[in-house]
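Weekly modeling sync, notes
Attendees: AB, CL, MP (scribe)

Item 1: holo prediction request
CL wants a bound-state model with iron/sulfur cluster before deciding which constructs to order. AB pointed out that an apo prediction alone won't tell us much about the pocket. Agreed to run with the ligand included and paste results into these notes for async review.

Input as submitted:
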Amino acid sequence: MAVANLLDFDLDGLAGYCESLGEKRFRATQLFRWIHQRGARDFDQMTDLAKSLRNKLQTRARIVGLPVITQHESADGTIKWLFDVGAGDAVEAVFIPEDDRGTLCVSSQAGCAVGCRFCSTGHQGFSRNLSTGEILAQLWFAEHFLRQRSGKDERVISNVVMMGMGEPLQNYAALVPALRVMLDDHGYGLSRRRVTVSTSGVVPMMDRLSQDCPVALAVSLHAPVDELRDNLVPLNRKYPLQELLEACGRYLEHAPRDFITFEYCMLDGVNDTPAHARQLIELVRTARGGRGVSCKFNLIPFNPFPASGLLRSSKAAVETFAKLLSDAGIVTTVRKTRGDDIDAACGQLAGDVRDRTRVGDRIARQRTVMLQPAGATVPQTTGVPRP
Ligand code: SAH
Ligand code: SF4
């Protein structure tokens, strides 16, 4: 029997595993609490488990996290970890402390195959999906590291956002058990409203998530029309805007919140003009055959990285854009950039990925032809890269 890593199981899976060892299912709850609530990695610590079970576990199971390659702490308290996932791949997780909450931004893949034009992870290409245990290891490590450091036996991480490296809905099978552990009262006990899956719009998987494990949903929109979104988020060619917004409507029937958060990365001269804002308002109002989509907007000032060739929108452009949306009755926030002194801001997570799909090359090749609709002349001042 292969040695199991117990971080790979949700509670149901662990109960099944205990049964396979000839143990009662309820033992799994004790074990699960030791692992996730107390951060145990050693079966000897688990003094309330029968010695016979501990002995079995010693030989057949382990609790292994991910080796930490580096830890960087920003002046604003943000902490970024780079974890080794083997074979030359590394992924990042970021802790963002705020007055009333602690948020962990978690990675779901080594790299990403979607290949968004403005995203550093996308530029790295795709190596592989993370396992459930590798997704959870980021939370397990961060929570217990921070708790120990605080010296208090209190929960530190109250929110998880699947906004690190990777497209979580392209790693669905590993994602869902990981979400269940986050939500489980015997695990991290997080509220469904405080666990957010962010997606570039994998429509069929949004439907499945609404059935299997509805949590808060953020959808990376970035453009009000298909022509532009096709270029910025290549997945749009498969699931265009109207289909995506239909799926958002269906998701809301099961979601723990009554709105979808639309993320919108503000790119100078590309998607940030008042005309784009007006198109966006029109889009979310008229989609779904006129029923519209209940939503909030989160505008993310673009975080530049060297290979992107793109520029962040001016503060004035972001403010004007936000005001147009707000005046149209759409709740709009502008994301504060945190941890930019340690390159921990959105979209800067690059980890270290061996690109097995050559997505990175594809983006590099397309870079010069993208973003300029046929016939459009782009003034030099907009920040759009010139071929
Ligand atoms: N793959 C998922 C989740 C990870 S990205 C998704 O795309 O939604 C998390 C968020 O960061 C997304 O909204 C993404 O569009 C945004 N993002 C990516 N690169 C960025 C950059 N360079 N600057 C600002 N936001 C960025
Ligand atoms: Fe992948 Fe999200 Fe980056 Fe797009 S923005 S390349 S979907 S991680």
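Recorded for review: The domain at 68-366 is CATH 3.20.20.70 (TIM Barrel).
Action items: CL to compare against the apo run; MP to circulate these notes.
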